[in-house]
Amino acid sequence: MKKYLFLGIFCSLVLSCATNPITGKQNLNFVSNSELFPTSFQQYSTFLSENKVVTGTSDAKLVENVGYKIKLAAEKYLTYLGQSQYLKDYRWEYKLVENKEVNAWCLPGGKIVVYSGILPVTQNESGLATVMGHEVSHALANHGAQRMSAAQLQQIGGAVLDAATSSKSAQTQAIFSQAYGMGTEVGVMLPFSRSNETEADKIGLTLMAIAGYNPEDAVSFWSRMAAKSGGSGTPEFMSTHPSDATRIANIKALIPEAKAIALKVGTIK
Predict the structure, then answer these.
(1) Which of 42, 89, 229, 260 lies 20 to 30 Å (CA to CA) from residue 243?
(2) Residues annotated catalytic, as ranges
């Protein structure tokens, strides 16, 4: 029984790795876009129906304009990479929602929401482009599907552990289960999430540059975010996101590459 469980995990890993067209990396992915997008689009519609969408204001128009430029940049970049068909099933939308939370997100398939609470931190168009480029990058890199797949794998691993320790005492099983849960969360899931954030920063800077914004403005935005947090928060190794200092240092190092790619690809006029 244990042998077949381990074999099942191995086969799942081999069969569920696919090359992401924007990163060129092999990623674990149990969920296809054809499966994910319909649910994503429905969730987006439901969210908009249950929240106050801001329309007709200068801020709402800014979100629309920046979102459209980031969309064009994504299309231009993927065409440059020879992957123009990758976005054919995207249904882009960019909505400003009244909410005090300092947040923004993009669901799979290009469904973007910006909360009004983040606008005092973005301050200007390039600050907003930093945020929207980052969030769109999560979708382009299939981070949502990857996290779902990793969580499924974590559950499978837990089932294997339960089978392997089934002959042990209940106390021993509980100790192993707790150690597995903490070990996979701190040692695998959280670093995985942090790597997704860094990857989204990298792609987002490139999209910013192609969209005609200066990627160096991303440093100013994240510095404002760091100042708002006051330097307090969860230690990096226990967080889904890199620390402010780590993120800013990474972004500074990635800016030259983003600019170089934009020169090759061309910018949005």
Answers:
(1) 260
(2) 135
Instruction: Report CA-CA distances (Å) from 56 to 32, 61, 63, 95, 245.
Output: 36, 7, 11, 11, 37
pTM: 0.74
Distance between CA atoms of residues 26 and 216, nearest Å = 29
Which residues of the chain register pLDDT less than 50?
1-15, 153-154, 156-165, 172-192, 234-239
pLDDT given for residue 76 in this prediction: 96
Q: What's the chain's average pLDDT?
A: 77
- Residue 125: closest CA among 40, 209, 213: 213
| C-alpha to C-alpha distance for 222 and 200, rounded to whole angstroms | 14
Question: Which residues make Cβ contacts (< 8 Å) with residue 32, sequence separation at least 6?
Answer: 145
| Other C-beta atoms lying within 10 Å of the C-beta of residue 40 | 20
- pLDDT score of 246: 87
